[in-house]
Amino acid sequence: MSPPHILAIPFPAQGHVIPLLELSLCLVNHGFRVTFVNTDHTHKRVINALQENSLGDGIHLVSVPDGMEPDDDRNDLERLCAVMPQVMPGKLEELIEDINRIEEEKLVCVIADGSTGFALEVAEKMKIKKAAFWPASAATLASFYSIPKLIEDGIMDTDGTPVKKQMIQLAHNIPEIDSTNFIWYNVGGGLAQKTLFDFICKNTEAVKVADTLIGNSTYDFEPEALSLVPNMLPIGPLLASSRQGNSTGYFWQEDLACLNWLDQQQPSSVIYVAFGSFTVLDKIQFQELALGLELANKPFLWVVRPDITDDANEAFPEGFQERVANQGKMVGWAPQQKVLSHPSIACFFSHCGWNSTMEGLSNGLPFLCWPYFADQFINESYICDIWKVGLRFKRDESGIITREEIKSKIDQVVGDEKFKARALALKETAIETVKEGGQSNKCFNNFIEWIKA
User: Fold this and answer.
1) What is the pLDDT of residue 53?
2) Does residue 418 form part of some domain?
3) Suppose 63 and one of 43, 71, 113, 303 were both cysteines; which one would form an S-S bond, judging by CB atoms 3.0 to 4.6 Å apart?
4) Of 424, 333, 415, nearest to 368 (Cα)?
5) Which residues form the domain of 283?
């Protein structure tokens, strides 16, 4: 008997690929085989960044076109969301037909990211069990579920444009959202926003009719939000901790030398600064951040992606790299889960993507929050207002977070034991929930039983 065969399809962004790959590896450990379908563009990046055969035999990486031209900008989410549903469903159908031709290869289930609703529709059409996977917070999906009500209450128009700037809270103990930070509004703007809003609405309908919905969260972190998304089985946090932090699915090659550097630092002394795969800073803000880290006078490990600002290598303040040579280390990309679990890390200075949030909490770290777009503002509110394990920054009248503000917040979060204590309590919670008999573990086992049924 060959192992039951699952098809997994993430949305083509790093924050979506990583958790679905983690889930796929968990499924392989439970006796399944997974064919993991990236877009051609993402597939190339993941393959280039992979350490030698770190996926093992149970996962087969394949790819289909996303419908964009080879040199189109994949960070143009409006264009990506417009063309993917036109091109990818047909390609997925062909792929599934090819796989299903051989009896022992036949798929038992399709697991599709909640932002690729079209893949769930393909599974429906081809009469294969379909599970939606939600890689972000339950609160984010709850905000999507509430779109009809937000329109009905006059908070936004039928295109998703907020009528005015106001704070919205869907329920007690759920992050307050600034209406101008609704995801479809803060990612798009103008015409792009309408495309993204329609894309989100269509995906949300597909998620609602999936046979089952699983999410990278846990009841313990967001009980109220999960009560607004009653059909979700929370199976998170999905981390590589089961495999000694060997996370895969990165789009950049990791600089492993930074681990040796961390080994030489004092326990709980280093500020780890990493803003995910999308954040872009203008040159003024980039320089203030650099000078703020220098001013704080604490060891720091800073992930400076080549595309975080216009020509990052040229953008550092004059003499900065020489002055901080003994204080800080800059890398193009870091093995984040290994870094966060390193004893020398004191605090996570983050863009608050959901994966990073889960990884930081699971390692008992306090946060400094620098959200950029999408659901990151919701996660910032969880971190600062609900879990109280971090601080947000204030911008000056020209919208800049100044070096003095950066130093001040670093001092506050590292200097106040209460942040660390609350963070360690959440770490315990995260460990308990994924352990045998924990809430997320039970949900995961139920999901496996459902696939096999």
Assistant:
1) 57
2) yes
3) 43
4) 415
5) 257-430
